[in-house]
């Protein structure tokens, strides 16, 4: 999954998939659009920190037993004060 699949940066991947080159090489791929974590103004949707944390748990980047207080991480308040 990628955030902002319609962005030009993903054009080569999208084109490669649409032309069937991934399949031709035996790769089972599916590009899926996902809401971008950050907006152009640096703010993130309310559920974005939890989404990132869930992905890290699913990929075993953080042990499930570890508790993380998302209020102590990047917040929109922090981003607003920085601008």
The mean pLDDT is: 78
- Please report which band the strand proportion falls in: under 5%, 5-15%, 15-25%, 25-35%, 35-45% or over 45%: under 5%
List unreliable stretches of 5+ residues: none
Termini separation: 29 Å
Radius of gyration: 17 Å
Main beta sheet, described? 2 strands, parallel
Helical coverage, percent range: 25-40%
Strand/helix succession = EHHEHH
Q: Which structural class should the secondary elements be placed in?
A: mainly alpha
- Total individual domains: 2
Strand order of the largest sheet: 1-2
Principal-axis shape equals flat
How many helices in DSSP terms?
4
Task: Work out the number of β strands.
Answer: 2
Compact summary:
The chain is mostly helical.
Characteristic key phrases:
83 residues, mainly alpha, two-stranded parallel ribbon, 4 helices
Structure commentary:
By secondary structure, this protein is mainly α. It has 2 domains: 1-34, no CATH class; 40-83, no CATH class. It has helices at residues 11-18, 21-24, 48-58, 76-82; strands at 2-3, 33-34. The chain is flat. The relative contact order is 0.14.
Topology:
Blueprint: E1 2-3, H1 11-18, H2 21-24, E2 33-34, H3 48-58, H4 76-82
Parallel strand pairs: 1-2
């Amino acid at each position: 999954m990628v955030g902002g699949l319609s962005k030009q940066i993903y054009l080569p991947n999208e084109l490669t998939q649409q032309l069937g080159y991934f399949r031709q090489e035996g790769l089972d791929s599916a590009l899926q659009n996902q809401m971008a974590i950050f907006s152009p103004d640096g703010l993130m949707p309310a559920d974005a920190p939890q989404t990132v944390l869930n992905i890290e748990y699913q990929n075993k980047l953080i042990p499930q037993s570890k508790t993380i207080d998302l209020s102590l991480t990047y917040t929109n308040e922090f981003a607003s004060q920085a601008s």
